Each structure stands twice: as C-alpha cells, then as structure tokens.
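User: Sequence in, structure out. Go.
Assistant: Echoing your sequence, followed by the structure tokens.
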Amino acid sequence: MGFLPIFYAGTFFFIALCGYVCLSVVAGMDALGKRVFLSILAFGASSYAGFLVVILAISFSPFKAILEGRAQPLIFGLAYILPGLVGGWVSLKGFGALRRPKRQG
C-alpha cells in the first residue's frame, strides 16, 4: 500500500484540525469544535474502511459484473460516501451521549 494511507489519514487530520481551530480558537465554540474534529476523523476512517469492505464484498460475490458496468463510478462513490456518513453520524451520537447527563426519574 505504501504512502497512500498515511497521506489519506494526514489529510483528514489536517482538515479536522483546521475545523477545530476555526471553531474553538477563533469563534470560541469549544464544544462544537471538538464535535467537528471528531466527526471529520470518523468520516475519514469509516469511509476508508467501509470502501474496502464494500468493494471486497462485491468482488467476491455473484454481483461482480456491477464493477465492470457503467454504474462503476456510482457504486464507488456510494461505497465511499455512505460508510463515511454513517461513521460521522455515529461519532456525533456517541459524543452527545457522553456529554448528556443521565436523567433521574
């Protein structure tokens, strides 16, 4: 694999750090800055892992002809975006559950 995963992770870390600095340091919204940082990193990790899992699952299934058709860019795009969105959403839900006090009652 070489240098590409390191470059990918570094790029997402840099984007997340820029979002955190813009919101936390410049705008003074520390809680939102932490959420943005976490969700961007979760999007990057989930989209990378999800893309690999989906493509490997399709390539070893009887639906392998999908990867050679005209729908290949659409399949690749959805295989990258959807796991990333799910990972970002789960990270935001998890962050909210950690910060929210439990109700007594």
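User: And one key feature?
Assistant: The chain has a mean pLDDT of 84.
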